[in-house]
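User: Need the bound-state model for zinc ion:
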Amino acid sequence: MRCRNCESKAQIYLRSFNLPLCKNHFIQRYIDTVKKTISKFKMFSENDKILVAVSGGKDSMALWYLLLKLGYKVTALYINLGIGNEKGESGYSNMSEKVVREFAKRMGADLIIENVLEKYGAPAPLLDRKRTPCSACGIAKRHIFNSIAMQRGYDVVATGHNLDDEVTALLGNILRWDESYLKSQYPVLHAEDGFAKKVKPLIFLTEKENLAFCMFEGIPFHHDECPFAQGATNITLKRIWAQIEDFMPGTKYRFFREFLKFKEKYFKLEEKKIQGKCKVCNQPTLAGDLCTFHRMIEKVKNKIITGEHFQQSY
Ligand code: AMP
Ligand code: FES
Ligand code: ZN
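Assistant: Bound-state model below.
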């Protein structure tokens, strides 16, 4: 098969668009897609200080590399979530940290590292036993992204969420008719009192495209999945999407693009209903005098004092 744009042999076939491409034209298309997304949604400009949240996985490593290559002012933030740290260097979070540290050194890039286990006494997914591991971990990650951005004066936080993540979340939100998530699902969340601006520049690229970009550009990434595998619902929804895409190539992309148009027409992004400031971190709260994260941390502290948390964890 030949590349659609030149005579070279195609090295990738994007079935969703019936598009065979050589390496160079794939890379060009990938970069153009990210540039268009950044400009269409007014994500950031050359003068903005960007904090890119990097997990060590393919999506966020591709984003970090590309923003550096495009000359943006970027600092990476890696959160060591403490996952599998009892296994030392070969544990999941420590291995990801190694990939990220080595890449920062190679690129001469700025990197901030936060360590949840050292700072809060438990791995992020185990901070709250009443929640699923991914939900507790997500609260911790979002809190840390926001607090580092606010404390250190970044204009925007960029994450590596991809099209597969978004359509999976969207289908789940529609199946539950979850109004508040449907209202807040968007490529950009603007800054509000105490909340940093958040953007997702890879939102129109699939996992497969991010993987190919890393391979073609020689970007290293941590191949393992988090051992707290995503919940059963998400795995099922991803499987359903794979089947839909197989029967009707291009549906994922169109579904998401049309959702955004629909949303722009019918719903306005709602401002968060801020109630006050957290007495520990001073970030806005949506209820009471503690933010969601510190409410969770207060519970852990009590359990650590009684030893209950660790008896349950290990
Ligand atoms: P996930 O929630 O694991 O699907 O990750 C979504 C995005 O959040 C990634 O693409 C990263 O930008 C960011 N992220 C996830 N885990 C971390 C981490 N440990 N440190 C920094 N950023 C992260
Ligand atoms: Fe948070 Fe897996 S990365 S539970
Ligand atoms: Zn707080």
